[in-house]
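Appendix B, example 12.
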Amino acid sequence: MYSHPMHTVKITEVCKSCEIKRSNTDRTAEKLKQALKDIRESVARMEKMQKVVETAETAEVETAKKAEVDTDDDEDLAALESWD
């Protein structure tokens, strides 16, 4: 799995210090992979929550606009009735 930096010679046996370094590198790489996975999941949850909030805000704005239109219609109707 590990090879020479020039990728010409496969290394099957390593000295004790290199083996320790390799295991530390592998452990660090696994920690980083897990951290990136956690971050991706967290971002996905935040994006999902943001969409829910935006949808709720959009619904509130539409409801407010509809209420304004209904109020305007009532005022126009009252103005027309006063002409009678």
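The CA atoms of residues 31 and 37 lie 10 Å apart. The helical segments are 16-82.
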